[in-house]
Design brief:
The protein is of the alpha/beta class and 379 residues long. Helix content is 39%, strand content 16%. The strands form four sheets. A seven-stranded mixed sheet has the order 2-10-9-8-5-3-4, sandwiched between helices. A three-stranded antiparallel sheet has the order 11-14-13, covered by helices on one side. Strands 1-12 form a two-stranded parallel sheet.
């Protein structure tokens, strides 16, 4: 079964084989060697200086890494402004409320890009804001948010930026040097082609000095301190770390982030153009989309469930829209061990489904209102 959902991904035989390595106690030197290699290779993805940056490993999904970043890096006297234009921006805002972090959000319709002028106006009006949090690749719609524009606004107002790069790290460009980024949260099982269970935060070391310990298990400072000393606070997902290191080795050998971006871009364009030829339109133009995942409009009178089941019978797993978009969109990711020949087979399957044209009993008209209370209720 080929996974075309936004993680976990179909892994390579090499990464799968790494899961068969010997059982390993996390208090032995062999584990710390593994941890050290993972941390070093994660920084190398964007050529970051280990004296300025720390890669902190966590056992948990990408959401765990985002929560650790948010809960740890906004100081006790800080204030957070969240940029929301999809499920995952709203999730960050929910985390901030859970930890009673002072702040607010700039809310957008799910189909809209961030309004940079609105963010700037909010920062100008409230000098107590110390941090802005934003999602780089909002997989709700496949939009690649303009991180450079948000970074420029943060720099102009002297605030720091926290980035959810869960679905972009390893493929899309991130200007660590030029942007006022304090941290980036990501995971092993998306663009890096590892397996679920390992996530991480790339954090500036000086940001750790201003951190606030609001959480226990996800305390970023504790993790960074112990991992620097070849320790670990708790029992990590050892096999997931094996897979992460092997995936990072493979990533480097294949040409790193630039090569991965080019590979994804080629596959994403093959999907987009192939679906367009079948009369299925992309939700967003390529220049506003990530190469990692894109959303497409379901043909009139046809349901996601019918498309999903037809493709699954051919060996492909795709993904539904979220919230109020669930009945009008489907999403396809080109992460993982996916080849152009796989996309050709996928398009053959979609073509057969389109030509079949059989009505589906589950098709019902739906009023689509992206974002807002109605959409959140379906998450």
């Amino acid at each position: 079964m080929l996974l075309l959902n936004p993680g976990p991904v179909t892994i390579s035989p090499r990464v799968r084989q790494s899961l068969q390595r010997p059982d390993l106690c996390h208090r032995e030197s062999e584990f710390y060697d593994l941890q050290d290699e993972a941390r070093r290779r994660l920084l190398a993805v964007h050529a970051l200086d280990p004296d300025e940056w720390s890669a902190v490993l966590l056992t948990g999904s990408g959401t765990a890494a985002v929560e650790s970043m948010v809960a740890s890096l906004v100081p006790a006297d800080g204030k957070l402004l969240v940029v929301e234009n999809g499920v995952y921006g709203e999730r960050i805002a929910a985390m901030a409320r859970q930890y009673r972090i002072a702040g607010d959000a700039v809310r957008h319709d799910w189909l809209s890009p961030p309004d940079v002028a609105a963010v700037a106006a909010r920062l100008a009006a409230d000098r107590n804001i110390t941090h802005v949090a934003a999602v780089h690749h909002e997989t709700t719609t496949g939009r690649l948010n303009d991180l450079a524009a948000l970074a420029a606004v943060c720099r102009a107002h002297g605030v720091r930026l926290l980035v959810d790069a869960v679905s972009s790290f390893g493929a899309e460009a991130i200007d660590f040097a030029g942007a006022p980024i304090d941290a980036v949260a990501a995971t092993a099982n998306k663009c890096l082609h590892g397996v679920p269970g390992a996530s991480f935060v790339i954090v500036r070391r000086d940001a750790l000095e201003r951190a606030c310990s609001r959480t226990y298990y996800l305390d970023l400072v504790r993790g960074a301190t112990l991992q620097d000393r070849r320790g670990t606070p708790f029992t990590p997902a050892v096999q997931a770390y094996y897979a992460l290191v092997e995936a990072l080795r493979e990533f480097d050998e294949e040409g790193g982030r630039v090569a991965r971006h080019a590979r994804y871009a080629s596959l994403a364009e093959q999907v987009r153009s192939g679906l367009a030829a079948l009369g299925i339109a992309a939700l967003l133009p390529p220049e506003e989309s990530s190469v990692v995942l894109r959303a497409y409009r379901l043909p009139d009178g046809r349901s996601y469930d019918a498309l999903h089941d037809a493709l699954k019978a051919r060996g492909f797993v795709i993904y539904a829209g979220q919230g109020g978009l669930a009945r009008s969109l489907f999403r396809i990711s080109t992460m993982g061990a996916v080849a152009a020949s796989d996309v050709t087979r996928l398009l053959d399957g979609v073509g057969a489904w389109v030509r079949d044209g059989s009505p589906d009993s589950r098709d019902e008209p739906v009023s689509v209102v992206p974002g807002g209370v109605g959409a959140r209720a379906n998450l």
